[in-house]
Amino acid sequence: MTDPTGAVAHLIQTALTPVFLLSGIGILLGLFNTRLARVSDDMSHAADLLSGDVSPADNVNLRRHLVRLEHRRWLLDASIVIGAVGGASACAAAFVLFLGSVGKSAVDGWLIGLFAVALGCTVIALVVFLGDSLLAWRGLRQEGLLPRSITKVTK
Questions:
Q1: Is residue 3 part of a domain?
Q2: Tell me, what's the pLDDT at 80?
Q3: Domain assignment present for 8
Q4: pTM of the model as a whole
Q5: Three-class SS string for the chain?
Q6: Which residue in 27, 43, 66, 88 is a FRET match for 98, CA 20 to 30 A apart?
Q7: Is 66 inside a domain boundary?
Q8: How far apart are CA 107 and CA 123, in angstroms?
């Protein structure tokens, strides 16, 4: 005979695992979105600077910044989408677990699959985010900070 309290405790423990994963994914998505907002602001600023009369050297530097920022934007967009799929999979895993406990149905395969997708997407989102970080670090080392103002071309 099994201990009913132990079985309930195990069910609660198992049900909380996807919830904790979902909480972590939510924090990551917030981080990704904040970083994307900063990149977007920098892109707008660089475009504004380019719209004025700029020296050829500043023009080249600003265009380099814009290319790097566009690559970073793409990587952050991918991180957000992949992270969102991971979050949806974590929610689905929690739902399938609930259905399995209520309906006494065989949902083990679904639960394992959805949880594996949630974990896999989270790892992939973090790897893609690492790509953004590497691009940002490389850009800072090679090009420096995005200038806040530029030298106007005198005629």
A1: no
A2: 94
A3: no
A4: 0.74
A5: CCCHHHHHHHHHHHHHHHHHHHHHHHHHHHHHHHHHHHHHHHHHHHHHHHHCCECHHHHHHHHHHHHHHHHHHHHHHHHHHHHHHHHHHHHHHHHHHHHHHHHCCCCHHHHHHHHHHHHHHHHHHHHHHHHHHHHHHHHHHHHCCCCCCCCECCC
A6: 27
A7: yes
A8: 24
